Amino acid sequence: MPGIKDVARRANVSVGTVSRVLAKNETVNPELREIVETAIRELNFRPNGLARGLRRSRSDMIGLVIPDITNPFFAELAKHVEAIASAAGFSVLLSVSNDDPQRERTQVESLLNSFPTGIIVVPTHRPSAGPWTSDVATVVLDRPFADYPLISVDHYGGAGLAARHLLDLGHRRIGYIAGPADTPVSRQRLAGFRDTLAAGGVTPLVVEGQFDYASGETLGRALLDRPAAKRPTAIATASDQQAIGLLRVVNDLGLAVPGDLSIVGFDDISLASLVTPRLTTVRQPLDAIAARAVAAVTGAGAIPAAPELQPAMLVVRHSTGPVA
Q1: SS3 label, residue 301
Q2: Which CATH superfamily is domain 61-151+287-310 in?
Q3: Is 1.10.260.40 the CATH classification of the domain at 4-47?
Q4: How does pLDDT run across 221-262, given as a tens digit for each residue?
Q5: Cα–Cα nearest to 80, from 281, 291, 241, 267
Q6: Which stretches within 23-123 are classed as H helix?
Q7: Which among 283, 305, 304, 290 is positioned nearest to 120, based on CA atoms?
Q8: Considering only CA atoms, which of 238, 242, 240, 186 is closest in space to residue 213?
Q9: pLDDT digits (tens, 9 = 90+) for 288-313
Q10: By CB neighbour count within 10 A (0-12 exposed, 13-18 middle, 19+ buried), where does 181 fall?
């Protein structure tokens, strides 16, 4: 690849002049600027963003660390972050921690060695290896970690929306498939769901698992494998993946949705509107969360001084209906 010295030789100018042209320094003579820009085009020269960053101790890059790229929620979040950062003139370097706290720490430290403008982290839900030391702007998303600024959806309020929806439809025998009890996200969603139902005089039947499809299928079968008079008429889940797994077991049992069972998910991943029936769910505003995070770490917006919670929204589709 041609370098800045090659451009200087082609234009018959100094390296400093080329640097000033690249920096859009207005002191460069217009005719000289045109000569340099012609040489840049002829050589197909591309400035090295990292090298520029090293000279000013930052690159035009944002680090993003997520726990699981196979999880549709995190994949969609990464897509939004990349699109918003690109529009602002930043590239995104993605790392996946595989929900391993030591790997997470190693990847963050590796990103810091690239002099990023900022770092966005979705922390693992396992016990942490501890915070890292850096003056790079950092925010965490979805779940708290150490003292880093948090940007997240209102998990408690969002689960409350799902509970209120089922109560309004007349359901009183209600099940709930929770996520792992050791995760703050799962605890907040379960608390919001329980508290809203309690205000309506209802106690849900709760089972606990992972946020994945398999848990939805296995735990859904446990909730539904009982006489019809004691079976829940509605089940809410802590994730859309669980809800989609639940849909599968409902089909295996020959039940109708929403005729025999209403189902509500959480997240509104893209699959939620593609499955049959289309899934009623609680939407996380991923575009707003990603935009706020990118603005915070690039200096376009303020770093949150306290946890910043975006409101959730109930999206009613075809998987919920009045109790039979």
Answers
A1: coil
A2: Response regulator (3.40.50.2300)
A3: yes
A4: 999 999 999 999 999 999 999 999 999 999 999 999 999 999
A5: 291
A6: 30-43, 49-55, 72-87, 101-112
A7: 290
A8: 242
A9: 999 999 999 998 889 999 999 999 99
A10: exposed
- How far, in Å, CA of 249 to CA of 263, rounded? 12
174, β-bridge pairs: 234
What phi and psi, each to the nearest 5 degrees, are found at residue 68?
Answer: -155, 110
Would the pTM of this model clear 0.70, i.e. be above it? Answer: yes
| Torsion of the alpha carbons at 66, 67, 69 and 72, rounded to the nearest 10 | -90
Residue 213: C-alpha distances to residues 72, 193, 284 (Å): 11, 20, 19
Show the 3-state SS of 16-47: HHHHHHHCCCCCCCHHHHHHHHHHHHHHCCCC
- φ and ψ at 50, to 5 degrees? -70, -40
Looking at this protein, which amino acid is placed at residue 26? E
Per-residue pLDDT band at 56 (split at 50, 70, 90): very low
Written out in words, the top-level CATH class of the domain with range 155-284 is: alpha beta
Q: Distance between CA 51 and CA 64 in Å, rounded? A: 20
Which residues of the chain does CATH 3.40.50.2300 include? 61-151+287-310, 155-284
Give the integer Cα–Cα distance in Å for 68 and 74. Answer: 7
CATH 1.10.260.40 location in the chain = 4-47
